[in-house]
Design brief:
393 residues; alpha+beta; 4-stranded mixed sheet; 4-stranded antiparallel sheet; 11 helices; 8 strands
Length: 393
């Protein structure tokens, strides 16, 4: 199935058999997955047709024109952008068939149990322990900054399985059941007033060895697939011209000429151009993905995404003057998704502060770009060959 016309015909057959106007959204999404039109580049039987990734746009255009429902990717972004590519690459056939379909249709939300209070930027220093007990692993530890943990059915989890090895070597990667009685999720209230993030405490959580991804001790290698896809999904999202954060600023500029000054005009023009360059660079990155796995270029895109969001939101607050100081709602909520453009300028300004932390801090990403993209010498490290248990903490 490598021909656009054939894919278009297959999509129209799906629409004829399951008219969006009369079919329940979940039933339509399941039928779409089973027809291989979820991720066309995925294997047949796993939501795809072994087709070129570039042909997904053909399917999406047909479905959008017909008013077909989508799977609400903002709500299940961690599953789509991080868990699914990792399961596809490292999962067993049984794992792929169990997890990919309910993940894609949105029946099961996923979260990411990576960062810890003492292992954020230096993720490989994590201390959450997984100890083998027969056919299970018993996990104890704490994770933090976990988006959607209060909604999640499953989590991708990395834990230390051998503290006698150097920190990058003694880690394994698991799929954790968030309904296990040993999982406790506590909200973390943010500067926006919401608790979009959580801290997660793991006490005697039992994970079957059948839910391990990759080999024992290979968790860091598996995690790299997750992290590279995460940065592409954050920094390389497909948006239209004047989509994202630049859109509300441009609209305010056009609709409220009394707010304009020469200085603000020059700054808006500069940021508009930078936002457009970033958008086109993201499109080029997505086209590069057609040929293989994401590389460190996604880290550069995520860097640009964070910086631009913070600068654009700051400009918007200045442009709006007194109105920019207003904040509509400080109610403590635990939202299902992050909506940058559907809220007011104050929310955008405050929420964008987290962009340079989440998905990899900007400082760490600068190192990745320097070493893996530009080929500069790596920073000296004296802890890479020392057993984790012997590291100073």
């Amino acid at each position: 199935m490598t021909d656009a016309a054939a894919l278009r015909s297959r999509t129209r057959a799906l629409l004829a058999a399951h008219p969006p106007a009369t079919t329940e959204p979940l039933d339509f999404l399941k039928a779409r997955f089973d027809a291989g039109l979820a991720w066309v580049h995925y294997p047949t039987g796993l939501g795809g047709l072994d087709a070129p990734r570039s042909l997904q746009a053909v399917v999406d255009a047909e479905l959008a024109a017909a008013g077909a429902p989508d799977n609400d990717p903002r709500r299940i972004g961690i599953g789509l952008g991080m868990a699914a590519p990792t399961v596809l690459k490292y999962g067993t056939e049984e794992q792929k068939r169990r997890f990919l379909r309910p993940l894609w249709v949105g029946e099961e939300v996923w979260c990411q149990l990576f960062s810890e209070p003492g292992a954020g930027s230096d993720l490989a220093a994590l201390g959450t322990r997984a100890v083998r007990d027969g056919d299970d692993w018993v996990v104890d530890g704490q994770k933090v900054w976990t988006s959607s943990a209060h909604l999640a059915r499953w989590a991708i989890l990395i834990a230390r399985t051998d503290p006698g090895l150097p920190k990058h070597q003694g880690i394994s990667y698991f799929i954790c059941d968030m309904t296990d009685p040993g999982v406790e999720v506590r909200p973390l209230r943010q500067i926006t007033g919401e608790a979009e993030f959580n801290e997660v405490f793991l006490t005697g959580v039992r994970i079957p060895d059948a839910h391990r991804l990759g080999g024992v001790g290979e968790g860091w290698k598996v995690a790299q697939t997750t992290l590279m896809n995460e940065r592409v999904s954050i920094g390389g999202m497909r948006i239209p011209r004047e989509g994202g954060m630049i859109g509300p600023v441009a609209r305010a500029w056009r609709e409220r000429p009394e707010l304009r000054t020469h200085d603000l005009h020059q700054r808006l023009l500069t940021l508009w151009v930078e936002a457009e360059v970033a958008r086109l660079t993201g499109e080029r990155l997505r086209q590069q993905l057609v040929a293989g796995q994401p590389g460190p270029e996604g880290s550069g895109m995520k860097l640009a995404f964070a910086r631009l969001n913070q600068e654009i939101s700051g400009l918007e607050v200045e442009l709006l003057g007194q109105d920019g100081l207003l904040y509509s709602d400080w109610t403590m909520r635990r939202p299902e998704l992050v909506d940058f453009t559907g809220r007011d300028a104050g929310y955008r300004y405050l929420r964008s502060k987290g962009n340079s932390i989440e998905g990899g801090t900007s400082e760490v990403l600068l190192n990745i770009v320097a070493e893996r993209v530009l080929g500069l010498p790596a920073e000296p490290r004296n802890d890479k060959d020392v057993a984790w248990k012997d590291l100073a903490r």
